[in-house]
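worker-3 :: picked Tetratricopeptide (TPR) repeat protein
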Amino acid sequence: MIGFFRSISSRLLACLALLSTLTALLAGCSQYSNRPGPVAFHNLTARYNAYYIARTDLRNAEMTVQKAYRDDYNQLLPLLLPMDSVLYQGVKPQLEDAIKKASIVAEKHQNSKWLDNSYTLLGRSRLYLGQWEDGVEALRYVFASGRDENDKNEALTWLMRAYAERDDYANALNVAEYLRQQPLTKAATRDFYLTKAYVHQQEGEYLTSVAILEQTFPLLKKSPEKARLHYAAGQLYDRIGQYALANQHYKAVSKNRPLYDLSFFASMNSLQNQVLINPKADLTSVGFDRMLRDRKNEDLRDRIYYTMGLLAERRGRFPEAIGYLQKSVQVAGTNTSQIPYTYLELARIHYDQLENYEAAKAYYDSALVVLPREAEAYRQVADRKKALDEFVAQMTIVRTEDSLQVLAQMNPAALERKLDTVIEAEEEEKKQLLKKAQEALAVSLAAANKPGSLPLAGNERRFELYDPQLIIQGRAEFRRVWGNRKLEDDWRRSTRDNRTLSTPNQSMPLAGLEQPAQNADAATTMTKGSEEWQARRDELRRAIPLTAEALAASQKRKEEALYRLGKIYRFDLEEPQKAVASFTRLLKEYPSTTFREEVYYLIYLSLDEQDKNRPLWKEKLLTEYPNSLYARLLNQTPDDNGLAGTTAAGSPAKRYDAVYALYTRGNYTEALEQVENAVAQFHGHALEDKFALLRIFLVGKVRGRDAYLGAINEFIRLYPSSPLLPRVQEMLEISGQAAARRKY
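worker-3 :: tokens ->
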């Protein structure tokens, strides 16, 4: 028994000794120690615990986003997926866990060689989540304090990409220049080239971008990602007009295991370039017909017709192009991703080539409804659509008033015949609309009566409310015919402008008569001589300016519309020649127009510097209106745009602060000179009306009461939609009351 207890005691003492030894060893494994033992311990623990989990979380998050991301082949593909925090919201838990685990390495394994890698993972994860400052700070820390050059180079590559995402191209290129001088591994060289190519692509330097990308391909293995980069290279070559080189990359796509859609669009672009390289090639013989017959392309036929439309447009065959593009819309089915770009191309053809602004406006409207907000062309389309809305409204006024004024000069008998002709045209169009509606109803009923025919396929017509494509088409057609209308009862008659007659010498109806009859949904049509017919005739007659007062009002509406058309051409649509034509017509038809001095100035600005008539308009303005604001602007030293120069530098806001400071210090003359320069230089800027308001105060200080009132009236005329207008009108009212009191 005594021996047994002695044995137990000796074993216990041995265990205690071993435990003490392990405790001493662990106590010596400090994260701040540089001895081999502690360093090896923390390297092992960091790598196969926190760092491994963080890296796995980040990779899984990136793979999930990459699989979910859908490229828009109508746009230039980004060489790298954008660091959009919205894209990474679905993997936020993985990224947050990666940040948590990477932070453990930074907190508990300071002497580990995986510290730099963990900070890089931390920075990348924060960038994906949109935490830019923290992400950039982590990457900068690796560069500043990192112990391994390869890790520092990796962090700098990601830092370069982060700068590019924030449009800070100067800093991105500074980092690229530093990396270019470093000895990089093969993998680091690949990532550096790809990121630098991405930076230049984002900056719009396509030639530089694709040149760097060419150096990247030998470093890439065959993969779907490499196929995508070949497609992007083809797009970049297309942008710079190198179609043969682009085709080489489009053909390389199929050799790198691409997804089917990518392969299809690469083949499509290759065929398109073949036609561009060989202008004599027939569109139906280069391979498009074969692609249309291929059953695998059933849901991509809209893209094929779209491409054929683009090629027909390039060859100047616009009716053929419109036919292909409309066919693209018809065959789209439920795949509506292509539709906004098809509508956009139709809008461009009607605007640029056919000058059919009403149709262009309708197509821009339709494109904007379904165009993704992140699309490259979205802002441009929105601006063009807004300008065309106002343009078509003013053009409609001009055409309508032209028509009505011609009709007002007809003798009563001829006018009555013309009104009957208009009503007959309305009734005929109503019949055609009813016929189309009945045919559509018959097709829908026939389809509904077929067994199991609810999900129709092929060329069968769907009930409109089941087909998103038909809904989009219907919306576009409604806007084209009726315009933008509020949802309300009796909208066809209650708000319709009745000034809808055409001139006898026009082959197409004007303004509102381009719309179908307003009671197109009626079950019956009117008969000539009936009470309804006579009521409609009276309704149309009331719109004709048969009295002197009505004619004067019609002339005033037309005068203002011509003036606004010219300004829309000049500033919104950026078509100076058409602006000159509109302004010239205004002066010809209304020699005493109140807009005369401003029109002189705008014509002068719109003409080319080499135009021999340009000095004549300047002379007319200086001769007829020597004391006007526009004359003073022309007497200043012109800059490259014909606008008044300035001696003060800086942004409009800084310029305003500088001029206002002169005003508060009492330097009124100098401030007035500066503000008049600024009104011209920042014409069209959001602060223009604010400069103009300050000019009113300065004119009152320098040039007296009459000039002050003139400046107020000038502001009211030039800035009718300014939020400062009520204040200016109050100033005018107060000035009038003061004058009345002095007179009394």
